[in-house]
Design a protein that fits this description.
There is one protein chain. The protein is of the alpha/beta class and 150 residues long. 45% of the residues lie in helices and 14% in strands. The chain has four helices and five strands, in the order ααβββαβαβ. The structure holds zinc ion (ZN). The site of zinc ion has 9 residues, from loops. Zinc ion is lined by residues 66, 71, 73, 75, 115-117, 148-149.
Length: 150
């Protein structure tokens, strides 16, 4: 049992390291930058350390991996081993995400979540579409926008 947990924890650590500067996030960053939008990255001053922070627009963007953040979509699949470990870990992440959004809203930040499935996989949207949606979110006044695969 100990060994199973250790192994699961190790896999978890590796996946988490790989999760930094993931390709979907880079696509968004480069695209928005090309549109002239300026942001800071992974601000630790804010709840949840949002991936991109647009101070001028009082807005943040998260690019969420569908696995880690338990998106109910075709890209989410519970691992077949150490299910208990994963279920607990991922449920914890999802719970933290809702709290984070609430905290950000309380502080006057608007929040956009771009799900991985909007950028990768069989149901991904055109990058141009995603960038357009992000751009209009930033200029608009919506408090919350989630964008997922089609
Ligand atoms: Zn998804």
């Amino acid at each position: 049992m100990t060994d199973v947990l250790t192994r699961a924890q190790r896999t978890f650590n590796m996946k988490r390291i790989k999760g930094k500067d993931t390709r979907p996030e880079m696509l968004i960053r480069r695209g928005l930058h090309a549109l002239g939008l300026r942001y800071s990255l992974h601000s630790r001053r804010l709840p949840g350390s949002p991936d991109l922070v647009f101070t001028r627009h009082s807005a943040v963007i998260f690019v969420h991996g569908c696995f880690w953040h338990r998106h109910r979509c075709h890209m989410f699949k519970m691992p077949s081993t150490s299910r208990g470990f994963w279920a607990k870990k991922i449920a914890g992440n999802a719970e933290r995400d809702s709290k984070t959004i609430k905290l950000l809203h309380d502080q006057g930040w608007r929040v956009m979540v771009i799900w991985e499935c909007a950028l990768r996989g069989t149901r991904r949207l055109k990058l141009r579409t995603v960038l357009k949606r992000a751009h209009s979110f930033l200029r608009g006044g919506r408090k919350l926008l989630e964008l997922k695969g089609g």
